[in-house]
Design a protein that fits this description.
It is a multi-pass membrane protein. This is Bile acid:sodium symporter family protein. It is found in: Membrane. Its main location: membrane. The protein has 330 residues and is mostly helical. It has a single domain, classed as Na+/H+ antiporter like fold. It has 15 helices and no strands. The longest helix is centred in the first third of the chain and has 40 residues. The chain is globular, with a radius of gyration of 19 Å. The protein starts with a helix and ends in a 7-residue tail after the last helix.
Length: 330
């Protein structure tokens, strides 16, 4: 009787863990949605703190650095193909998809530039949680996010200048330096701090995602406050652009991995990593280097990509349950 009860208890605990994971991913977009709603109704209050956005982004990147370890980059040497393939897909598929979406929907210049900036951003930190929930390759997800973030000071300004420069002026040099200050330096600082005081940082790790998403929600509130008058008039068009951009990115990320015969868990990770961008960074840079309207697509992307990621994770788990086990590539 005890032997038969043990599997039931284990299954119950696993189901509880699964439900908790889903709630965590679903709460993230709800918090960001709440931030956007507050920004829409309290424009003056949030507009008054717009100058703090770079510092807020630096804090988010610092919390990301605290979650990293040098070993997370070891995968580049051990399994270079999926890492290089994923990074290439990240900085090719999403910028290209952004250009195609803006062309197909005939977006006005400000919104087009904003969508393209989202496409040029590195992978988002929430992708690591979604990769775990989707039973993807979590180590690969962390490595791809980390490497794409470290490449952002070079890749993001150059791609933005090339693809969005004809919509709005882009100061690639200043953007590169600011990305280094608010991304590269804080991430490295967090990485170093964890190396020297690992015990203290380990105690903080459970709260870091909630701190990070709370700050991103505040950034979204500031962005929406600056473009509140355009939310109603252009809201439907921006939502369509964000939905298509995310869908194309996740789909092509999976397809590229499948075409190169990667295992199923790697395919899932590629879909998540390519489709989920660091939209908080894109929102802050758009507000600083373009205009508040250009930051609107990034604000909405922050909400939607977490929701689509949660739906993707649910679909992956249902596929696994239907087959009785996780699939492996042929």
């Amino acid at each position: 009787m005890n032997d038969s009860a043990q599997p039931d208890e284990t299954s119950r605990l696993l189901r509880r863990e699964e439900r908790a994971g889903y709630r965590a991913v679903l709460i993230f977009p709800l918090l960001i949605l709440a931030g956007g709603t507050c920004g829409f109704f309290f424009t003056e209050s949030f507009g008054a703190i717009a100058s703090f956005v770079p510092a807020m982004l630096g804090f988010v990147m610092f919390t990301m650095g605290l979650t990293l370890r040098p070993i997370d980059f070891g995968l580049v040497a051990r399994r270079p193909l999926p890492v290089l393939l994923g990074i290439a897909a990240q900085f090719i598929i999403m910028p290209t998809a952004a250009v195609l979406v803006t062309w197909a929907l005939k977006l006005p210049p400000e919104l087009a530039a904003g969508v393209i900036l989202v496409g040029c951003a590195p992978g988002g930190t929430a992708s690591n949680v979604v990769a775990y929930l989707a039973k993807g390759d979590v180590a690969l997800s962390v490595t791809m996010t980390s490497v794409s973030t470290l490449l952002a000071p070079i890749a993001m300004p150059l791609l933005s200048l090339w693809l969005a420069g004809h919509y709005l002026p882009v100061d690639a040099g200043s953007m590169a330096w600011d990305i280094a200050k608010i991304v590269l330096i804080p991430v490295l600082a967090g990485l170093i701090l964890r190396h020297f005081i690992p015990t203290l940082v380990s105690r903080l790790l459970p709260s870091l995602p909630w701190l990070s998403v709370s700050v991103i929600a505040l950034i979204v509130a500031i962005v929406v406050a600056g473009s509140a008058e355009f939310v109603i008039s252009a809201g439907a068009l921006v939502i369509a652009a964000v939905f298509l951009h995310n869908l194309v990115g996740m789909s092509l990320g999976y397809v590229v991995a499948a075409m190169t015969r990667q295992p199923y868990n790697v395919r899932r990770t590629m879909a998540v990593e390519v489709g989920m961008q660091n939209s908080g960074l894109a929102a802050g840079l758009a507000a600083q280097y373009m205009n508040p309207v250009a930051a609107l697509p990034a604000a909405l992307f922050s909400i939607w990509h977490n929701m689509s990621g949660a739906l993707f994770a649910m679909a992956c788990r249902r596929v696994d349950r239907a087959h009785g086990r996780a699939k492996k590539a042929p």
